[in-house]
Structures are given as C-alpha cells and as structure tokens.
C-alpha cells in the first residue's frame, strides 16, 4: 500500500456535503483531528458548497468529481453519497490514484464490492468502509465482557434488531434500488457488532420479508416493511437479524448475546448481564464505556503512513455485505442460500 512519511502530508477530500446528519463536516473534522489536511469538497448543491467554505475556510470546492481529482489531487477521498453510487465513485477515485474511504454499506452487491477490492489491490491503494461503530462504547463493553472476560460462556446465539412501528420517510434511504433495502442502513451496524463477537465464516443465510404495508413516494420500489435474516456460521453460532417498521413492541436490547453461561443485553447506553452458575442466577446492570470513534481515522492515517495495519479492511467490510446481499436474495427467492451457492 502506498504510504506517506507524515500524517500531515495526507491530503483528503469528501464527495458529498449534504445537510443530512452534517456528515461531510463530521468526516473532515475527524480527518483533520487525525492529522490529515482537508483540501477539497465535491457537492452538486451550491448552497451546501457555501456551507463547506464557511466550515473550512480556504478549502477547494467542486461540482464534479473529475475536476476535483485532477485539480486538488487528494491522497484520500471519502465518499458520502447514496448507497447505489458507492461502487462507481470508489472505483473512479481509485483509478485516479486516490485511496478511498466509503460510507457504509460498502456497495449494493457483492459483485460491486469485489470489483472495488480488485481495483484497490491493482493500484496498491487503501480501501476502507466507515465502520465507525466498530468503536462504539456499547460494543467495546460487550466485547470486553464476552470475549476477554468470558462472562457468559460460549456465545451460540445473537439476536439483533432495530425499528418500531412507523412509516419510513420520503427520502432516498426508503428507496430499495438506491439504498439496497431496509436492512442496508442500521443492519450494517448490527451485523458488524455481531461479527466482533462471532469469529466464524458464514455458511448459510435464510431471510424473510413483509412488504406493501407502508408506502412512500417510491411506490413499488419502497423498502421492505420488515426483513428478518437467520445467519448460520461454521462454528454453529446463529445470528437473527430483524429490521422493521412494523413492530409495535420491540424486544429488550438492540443486540442480545446468549451464551452457555448467561445472557448479555446491549443498548447504546446501557447493558444488562445475566450470569448462571449452577442454580444461582445473578443480574448486573451498568453504563457502557465512552465511544472511541476517533480511532477510525487515526487508524486510516497510520495505515497510509505505514505505521499500522488497517483495522477495517476491505475483506472485513465484505463480510457484512455478504450477509446483506444473501439476505436480499434469500427473501426474494424464498429459500435458504448457502455461501457461494
């Protein structure tokens, strides 16, 4: 991978500076805090370019990607655009010689992911996906207690769910062809949480969906109302993922880890740990540790500088995509799918 002598030599840019969640500024702020230099923003909305100029005085602004790559010559480009554009834009930047960080999910299909990985490898460039929640305090606490301290024994089942009973908004994230489906947003994070505990290969995915209850401006292209995926791993572990707009009484805990000696209920702020030792059951509740989100771009800067191994590798990101893509196919085809089948 091409490297740099000092982090401050890394010139970075973002594609996308939309108003939703102010993500363009969030990324550039984190890059800057990691020692990198923001040099350019690409955005088709002229009013948002004015915001970028105000947020980062002196930064170059562009309305086309080609002109930005040619004139600003960034070393690293972060892509903050709708999901169905990730693959094309990533490969364009990689082909130009820039390393890429892509907002999650990596792409829509596994074929797109594999093309992105192939281009990055052929150019000897960094490719990563912004799995910032890898360092959420809730999962750091859970991994420490479950994997390091072995407080619930061998984990054999993970249940992850997000949503409630509400109509989805009329924006691109509700369009299946643009977003990928209901499970392509928060589902990415929940899967990534689970994979930090289940260290095993996916062997089978079976998914089920309910559609046609809620309607948005996207009509038949509206995301599924609910999707449930059952994922089987080579070590015998099971992940049950459910993303829904139809659940009036969601279960306790966004992620629940069940082990041979207890159970761990995880929410963003708190945890509940149930331990069973013989006939004795104990319950412990507590607050999660603080998030360490800054570690994402610190690791990117260190990896580009040749000082550390990349944590969120393309192969790591592809693991979440494998589950998302197989769940999409399984629900559509009405059958369980073996990996590589």
TrEMBL record:
Domain of life of the native organism: Bacteria
Alphabetical list of Gene3D superfamilies matching this protein: Dihydrodipicolinate Reductase, domain 2, NAD(P)-binding Rossmann-like Domain
All copies of domain GFO/IDH/MocA-like oxidoreductase, residue ranges: 143-264
Coiled coil: none
Residue ranges of domain Gfo/Idh/MocA-like oxidoreductase N-terminal in the record: 10-131
Entry-linked SUPFAM superfamilies: Glyceraldehyde-3-phosphate dehydrogenase-like, C-terminal domain, NAD(P)-binding Rossmann-fold domains
InterPro entries linked: Gfo/Idh/MocA-like_OxRdtase_N, Gfo/Idh/MocA_oxidoreduct, GFO_IDH_MocA-like_dom, NAD(P)-bd_dom_sf
Protein name from the UniProt record: Gfo/Idh/MocA family oxidoreductase
The organism of origin for this protein: Oceanipulchritudo coccoides
Single GO MF descriptor: nucleotide binding
């Amino acid at each position: 991978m091409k490297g740099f002598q000092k982090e401050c030599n890394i010139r970075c840019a973002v594609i996308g500076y939309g108003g939703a969640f102010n993500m363009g500024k969030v990324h550039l702020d984190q890059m800057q805090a990691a020692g990198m230099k923001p040099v350019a923003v690409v955005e088709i909305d002229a009013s948002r370019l004015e915001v970028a100029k105000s947020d980062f005085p002196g930064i170059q602004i562009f309305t086309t990607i080609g002109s930005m790559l040619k004139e600003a010559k960034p070393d690293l480009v972060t892509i903050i655009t709708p999901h169905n554009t990730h693959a094309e834009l990533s490969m364009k930047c990689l082909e130009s010689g820039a390393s890429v960080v892509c907002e999650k999910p990596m792409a829509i299909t596994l074929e797109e992911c594999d093309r992105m990985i192939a281009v990055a490898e052929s150019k000897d460039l960094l490719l990563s996906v912004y799995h910032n929640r890898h360092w959420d305090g809730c999962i750091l606490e859970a991994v420490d207690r479950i994997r390091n301290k072995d407080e619930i024994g061998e984990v054999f089942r993970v249940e992850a769910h997000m949503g409630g009973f509400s109509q989805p908004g009329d924006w691109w994230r509700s369009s299946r062809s643009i977003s990928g489906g209901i499970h392509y947003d928060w589902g990415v994070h929940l899967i990534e949480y689970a994979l930090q505990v289940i260290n095993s290969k996916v062997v089978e995915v079976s998914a089920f969906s309910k559609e046609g209850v809620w309607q948005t401006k996207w009509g038949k292209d509206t995301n599924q109302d609910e999707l449930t995926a059952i994922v089987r791993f080579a070590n015998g572990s099971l992940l049950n993922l459910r993303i829904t707009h139809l659940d009036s009484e969601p279960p306790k805990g966004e992620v629940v880890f069940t082990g041979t000696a207890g159970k761990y209920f995880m929410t963003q702020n708190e945890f509940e740990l149930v331990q069973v030792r013989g006939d004795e059951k104990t319950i412990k509740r507590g607050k999660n540790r603080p998030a360490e989100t800054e570690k994402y771009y610190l690791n990117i800067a260190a990896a580009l500088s040749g000082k550390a191994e990349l944590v969120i590798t393309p192969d790591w990101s592809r693991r979440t995509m494998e589950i998302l893509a197989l769940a999409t196919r399984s629900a559509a085809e009405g059958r369980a799918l073996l990996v590589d089948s």
